[in-house]
# Entry
Amino acid sequence: MQLFLDTTDTAVLADLVKTGLVDGVTTNPTLIAKSGRPMAEVIAEICGLVEGPVSAEAVATDAETMIKEGRKLADIAGNVVVKLPLTRDGLIACAAFAADGIATNVTLCFSVAQALLAAKAGATYVSPFVGRLDDHGADGCALIGDIRTVYDNYGFDTEILAASVRTADHVARCAELGADCATLPPNVFEALFKHPLTDKGLEAFLSDWAKTGQTIL
Ligand code: G3P
# Structure
């Protein structure tokens, strides 16, 4: 399973890239606004920090302008993935990019039916929003498994990118249910390393080791 960071904080990203565990980055208009920086500048910097896919989202609502915006975004760097909303126009733009060999991430997916359309439009990635579905009273992770079943039924190669991921448990469940990738806010990425028994066990090992008076180096 590929792990992406959902962030425009380049300092945090540069630090987490050092783990060697960051496979790509996703952004959205809210995260760009949060950065307080020009979009092209932030995306270019992120593309310089990671070799993997970097999603940059078009903001037009009509297909023609989305295509123009997407082409401009794709020109920023070779690893840009054009992110498009799961709307009728978004999927028309998606199909145009697929025909041109430009990678896409169809976002704001909340149902199997929408995911089916994204795959038929040739999306490289589809982003089901797990946390926002949970907020809405549904089981967001269950959607991942349902989309997996449908994509496998028909051999679609669109990758399932679990988004709006809020907890380490979300990541684990999405992995169990067959997500190809998950995009995580930095705090959730950090949480993946943690378990209270790891901390407790390490404390005991180090305390016992100290009693020996030995050093390894
Ligand atoms: O980038 C899309 C997504 O990950 C947003 O997450 O937490 O705002 O629902 P959230």
Remarks:
- The chain is about 50% helix and 15% strand.
- The domain at 2-212 is CATH 3.20.20.70 (TIM Barrel).
